[in-house]
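look at this one:
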Amino acid sequence: MDQNITIVPVSVIIATANRPWLLERTLASLRQQTFQPRELIIIDASDNNAVKELLSTWDADSIALKYEKAGVKGAASQRNQGVEHSVSPFIAFLDDDIILEKDCFGFLFNTIAGNENVGGVNAFITNQHSFPPGKITRTYYRLISDRKLDFYDGKCFGPVINVLPVDYQGSRQLVEVEWLNSTCVIYRREALPVPVFDPHFTGYSFMEDVALSLQVGKKWQMYNVQTARIFHDSQQSGHKSKRRLLSKQQIVNRYYIMTRIMEKRKTADLIRLIAAELFGILSGLTGFNGWKTLIPDIGGKIDGAWSLIMRKGQ
């Protein structure tokens, strides 16, 4: 083992499916970290053995590797499966398509381990972050929000409108946030609910990370660590390519989080949700591709609304 490497009590869980070339790159960046996790757990929902074959050459003897085939395919269920087999006091979730910059993992671990009031931290995504909102977006946020906010980055408000942090470019190392995406995140085990991800979230599991972090944030502090930086090479997956199904999940899962976790059940909250979904459709009509996906987007919203109505009637 390299004497410059520090092993920390973290179990890293990666859910993957049919993307060994991306996973290989993610693991390469993890192995180059000066702080490395005690164990790595891969939950594989692939249709073949490509990921298993990739891991057969695993040579990072400092990190214990566990590989399992997924019992149920889906980001939330695969991560839950990984948690069941983890042993560390800190749990990390990594997407299989990220590249960690130098010392990223160390910055994350030192932040959460150094303050017992911190329940979760995540990395700053260099190619996916918010910018200070313009006049139109700020007006929309004010109308859709159910509380007055001076700034919106890192917040989750209204009908589950979750905004990524902005890049403070070194002026702030830590940004306290209300939600955490699970692209590269570490949680304190004792802060996590059981099960970690609600069984409601299936398939692509849209917003399962929002639901989890909102629960953790009720009792714990959470931070975006701006010095811990990653690149997210987000690519089309099987679930993401099913546009109508994804559109349905968006409205169904937003409603679930809004009513069950954020406990917003007033008529005004439902109106805000409908307005947010309409704004999402309209804001996407900025080019040919936007118009091309209009029909499946609307169809998915109708499917989702109908399923919610049917549940109410049961």
